[in-house]
Amino acid sequence: MKKWQSMLTMGIFIMFMTACNSGDGKQPENAERPVNQEGKTVVTLSVQQESPFYDTVERKFEDKYPDIDLQIRVIEDYEQYQNTINTEILSGKGPDIFEISGLPIKDYVNKNLLLDMKELMEQDETLNHSDLQTNILDAIKSNGSLHAMPFGFNLRAFVGDGDLLENTSIDDQNWTWKEFEHIAKELGASGAERRYAMAGEAPDFRIQEMIVDRYAEFVDTAAKKAMFDTPLFVDAMQQIKDMYDNQVMTSEAADLGKQMFYSTVLRSPADFINDLHLYFSNPKLLQKPEQNGGTRIVLSSQFAIQAKSPVKEEAWKFISFMLSEEGQSIQERQGFSLLKSVNKKQLTDIQEQIGSGTYKTPDGKAPKVSDEEFSMFEEFIHTADNYSEADGKVIFIVGEESMAFFSEQKTAEEAAKLIQNKVTTYLNE
Question: What element of type H or E holds 402?
Fold first, then answer.
């Protein structure tokens, strides 16, 4: 992979970027475009992790656009990446395209530092718009704008033992954690041996996951206001503690088949088989108790275009390439595809292999999966529309400070007040 190629090129690039540093985020009409020694237009991309994926992306993109030199910079230290990119973007310098995961995207948007890709995407005739997973792209828009683009996505799934739940009526679109606890107690005591509802995660993890699912109920991002010192949050913590105290949940790991439900992240169509069928022979996809909206979308990374980039057109060509069939079919790309056809093909290939008996799960077993399940898997992908813009620092504070309550060192109200104060301070820094 090429890094920044030469000090001369870097100097030219910085000079051009500095020349574009206007207060309104617009590029001057006479802004010069950075070029390398061969006369190719230089487009810079900053990422947080070196990967064979980017090697392949660079090669394939430059093959398609031989007049563009894609230069990729990797800063693998997380804090260094955050500090470096933040400083560069705020000063109007830095990369044309950059991985924005973990950076203050809303602050950048408010300062007009990011390009809104919504209109560019709508006008791009090279894209097969009917094939795009618009449910994902619509969900991640903010106020109708699209300032960050993923190259793939993951899905948070809540899974139950279908055999155990066969005779149990569950309205999973509306159930609460209290109802979940009641159902789990009845089912757990009905068999020859006790089964936990959920296992393998501590209560601080459970409260963190719950807050991600319901983030807007506890944090007003626009107003930078926290709402953790409320009966709603206190009750949520108490509910989780009750489930651990009553042995409905446990922090200890459970053997396969010894728990009734589990929460997992699906990262590809193959995970519908390899993950779901690992625990249960008849897995049932459910909506998590008290989760607002549908299936939650999980993004591992997103990419933004700097509004002051002198090569916005070429930068968009890169994003558009990554949304094309060629870009989405790159083997090293992670996550479900943003193209329906790519997801469909992967599911169909797996379905055919299972039908012929040639598909094996990682533990060497040949799973039994009905055609109806594959239809449900496809619907699960197409109906996912719940994206939480949860701030990782806020979630960390909730997990860290809630442990004082779960370990009975503080009351729920005391822990909630401490979380409220720390999150409020953080949001207003």
Answer: helix 392-406
